[in-house]
Amino acid sequence: MFLFLAGATGFVGSNLLPELKRLGIRGRCLLRDAKKASLCEGFETVTGSLDNIPSGSLSGVDTVVHLVGIMHETGGQTFDSVHVKGTQNLVNEALRAGIKLKNFFYQSSLGASLGSPSMYQRSKARAEEIVKDSGTPYTIFRPSLILGPGDGFTKQMSQMINASPVIAVPGSGEARFQPLMISDWIRCFLSAVEGGGQDRVYEIGGPEYLSFNDLVREYMKAMGVEERKKFIHFPMGLAKAGLSLLSVAKISGIKNIPPVGREQLLLLSADNITAIDSVKKYFGFEPESIKGNIREFIPEEYLTGPFQKTT
């Protein structure tokens, strides 16, 4: 197996690469910045992006692994340009190269749907359709929230909890998630790609359903501030009116809250879960609970914030 990895230096990719290296699996990484080549030590690299894939990049490849994704739009990085057009460009390059792929792996998202109110979820669904229509064997993962070293959700939660003595929670906070440890995601991935694409879509999640309130409490517990900070719930309607969490924080008089856009707030308003035994059913093992493990991947700087001091 020789992989072509798009998104190799992101959260999922950076955790996957060491395991691929340990197993002796060879690959080539697409890098936007050549200076990050050291992050792909042991793998070939090519400099480019999904909107500018150098000719010949897929030479000798039998498996494409597409991990590129964004959670919010900035500048020219839109859901359409990254998820939809980027996926189309990668499929086109594989077809243009004339290679016979065993598998085109695409990392989608639980809840991806053309009818979703979320632009993020709609764009993921459109990307799925591109992969399915490509004519190549494919594997699509729709995971719930993935947590582990370097994940963006943990960083954002840590910032939010560290920033203020009061935690602003959008809506009721009762929407449920099914967090999956990155180590378990990697086990699922390796099992799914081993034999080539089977034209399957896997919805996967961890061993428990946790509301957003539950998740906040787990992070507060891990940071040692559970007894000293309180929740403030603000109406989700404010998000749907286009206000960011930062705007709500200013209205409420809460300072230093990191900005969270409308799209992210929409994703917090609905359950993001699948069958509780999904990993066991598809891949034959019991995934690990996040409880008791969160502190391991909270950035150190957020364990010593000004509102967490006990003296």
Sheet with the most strands, sense and barrel status: 7 strands, parallel
What is the annotated CATH architecture of the largest domain? 3-Layer(aba) Sandwich
Rounded to the nearest angstrom, the distance between the terminal CA atoms is 56 Å
Give average pLDDT, whole number: 89
Order of helices and strands: EHEEEHEHEEHEEEHEEHEHHHH
Shape type? globular
Short descriptors:
311 residues; globular; 2 domains; alpha/beta; single chain; Rossmann fold
What does this structure look like?
The strands form 4 sheets. A 7-stranded parallel β-sheet has the order 3-2-1-4-5-6-11, sandwiched between helices. The chain has a two-stranded parallel sheet with strand order 7-10. It has 2 domains: 2-143, Rossmann fold; 152-174 and 208-271 and 289-303. By secondary structure, it is α/β, with parallel strands linked by helices. Residues 254-258 have low confidence and may be disordered. It has helices at residues 11-22, 79-97, 119-132, 152-163, 182-193, 212-223, 236-240, 245-252, 262-267, 278-283, and strands spanning 2-6, 26-31, 44-47, 63-66, 103-107, 138-143, 146-147, 166-170, 176-177, 180-181, 200-204, 210-211, 230-234.
Short description:
The protein has 311 residues and is α/β, with parallel strands linked by helices.
What is the fold's blueprint, element by element?
Elements: E1 2-6, H1 11-22, E2 26-31, E3 44-47, E4 63-66, H2 79-97, E5 103-107, H3 119-132, E6 138-143, E7 146-147, H4 152-163, E8 166-170, E9 176-177, E10 180-181, H5 182-193, E11 200-204, E12 210-211, H6 212-223, E13 230-234, H7 236-240, H8 245-252, H9 262-267, H10 278-283
Parallel strand pairs: 1-2, 1-4, 2-3, 4-5, 5-6, 6-11, 7-10, 8-13
Antiparallel strand pairs: 9-12
